[in-house]
Amino acid sequence: MQTTQIAVVGAGIAGLGVGLELVERGFEVTIFERDEVGRGASWAAAGMLAPTAEVTFEEEALLRLGQKSLAMYPDFIARLEEASGMDVDYRDEGTLMVALDRDDAEELQRVHDYHRELGLEVDKLSADEARELEPGLVPNLHSALYIRTDHQVDPRRMTRAMAKAFERAGGTLHEHTAIARVECGERVEAVVTDAGERIACETLLVAAGAWTRGLEGIPRELLPRVRPVRGQMLSIDLGEPPLCERVIRAPDAYLVPKSDGRLIVGATSEEMGFDPQLTAGGVFELLRGAWETLPGIYDQHLLDMWTGFRPVTLDNLPVLGPSELDGLWFATGHGRNGILLTAVTAECLAEAIATGHTPDALQGFTPARLAR
């Protein structure tokens, strides 16, 4: 019978991040992935590290967690790039939030008022000031907010780097290996693959994203209510010179330039279950929103289109920590913030598993809140 100290279900950015931290602490870790590494929400994401730009009303707890994670990112990325020998395209030019007309400007002002109420560092720009930063913006732009503290990363590069670093450090990674069921009694005992292999484990970390509730064998009441929210996205040739250098958040699309020459445009938010199909309407709205903001995309080559499934909980907060079943842990439900929260998820959850003590940063995000 095979054994491992810690089994992880899911080789997305959350599972790889925690797994890598645990291996570096000396634990024996085996990760099981139903598909290829990082081919779920991690692969579909744009990679914005933007707690300020992303903050919405009544989400101060999530903002604080995102800010902590962003503060951890420079060191996290430096260690990852050294361990993997790979560049993950970490960039710090900031985010422009733009208003195209008067109605947009009124909404942007409400957001800016909320930023100031929270004490966030945001600059209000005139149209001319915004176009000095990004000359490709539409000439009749109304106004903008500039968030210098927002960063970005390439999540596809980062997942590949994390997988390489994980295996280099001694971790075991099984791709195309779905977990058919979990065996548990008074505590977690083992996982069984779809090929019938049984692997005994002391600890099980479920990092299966939108597929969390599909795991068999775990009592249903212990599984967080995580559902898939479909996002349609596309990429366009960024051009030379590039159409933009900063992340641009417009009313109907966001635009994220990458150093490899892609301009990522996203994203819809649709309650469509696991339907992976692109729609004409979704792609049209993304292109329209991007073109109204950055007209130069009109003649650029369309490179790719795809969908992804954000793992979203009922309260829109991630589920990070131990369950009521001994040995069962969760890192799921990150919603639209999976890439942003990678650093804090990896380091704090690994610390909790290693020491049995949940760090203060994760208080309020553990599965215990869902039992109330």
UniProtKB/TrEMBL annotation:
The keyword Oxidoreductase applies. The keyword Transmembrane helix does not apply. Keywords: Oxidoreductase, Thiamine biosynthesis. Residues 6-351 form the FAD dependent oxidoreductase domain. Its EC number is 1.4.3.19. It is an enzyme of class 1 (oxidoreductase). Pathway: Cofactor biosynthesis; thiamine diphosphate biosynthesis. GO terms for cellular component: cytoplasm. GO terms for biological process: thiamine biosynthetic process; thiamine diphosphate biosynthetic process. NCBIfam families: thiamin_ThiO (TIGR02352). This is Glycine oxidase ThiO. It comes from Persicimonas caeni. The gene is thiO.
